[in-house]
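Problem 12. The chain below contains 153 residues. Write out its predicted structure in token notation.
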Amino acid sequence: MMTSVASRTAIRASVRQGRRTRAIRRTPGFSLIELMIVVAVIAILAAIVYPNYRESVLKSRRGQAKADLVEMAQILERRHTVQNDYSGLRPVLADSSALQHYTFGPANIAAGAQDFTLTATPSGGQTQDRCGTLSLTSTGQKTNSSGTFAECW
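Solution.
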């Protein structure tokens, strides 16, 4: 009977020793599954945030282009006040940030012209903007080549 008690005690001791060894062998840190969960959460957030960020950038550039069109129209109106026509003047915006993303141009300013149409055509990455080419006439009419008027102007 002694051997069976001794063997049980030895088995219990080895089990306790195994638990201690497992506890000692465990190192601090993150498991692979925990890291993969974090990567998945970051990927989901990036998939949601990036399109919204991109749309905001396009919208802010469009806003600058609209402001530049209005400024160019004001320059032409000042010219019309003094000369009684719009001809001979091409408004220049040298310090606008929109010049990197839009090509500005008056579409029709001929000699003796009594009206004009200014356009801002997107270029580069701005071509992805849903509004396309923006236009402003001497009568204040605003148009865009695509998208709805409400979201573009």
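Discussion. The beta strands are 102-106, 117-122, 134-137, 142-144. Students who got a different answer should revisit the alignment rule from Section 12.3.
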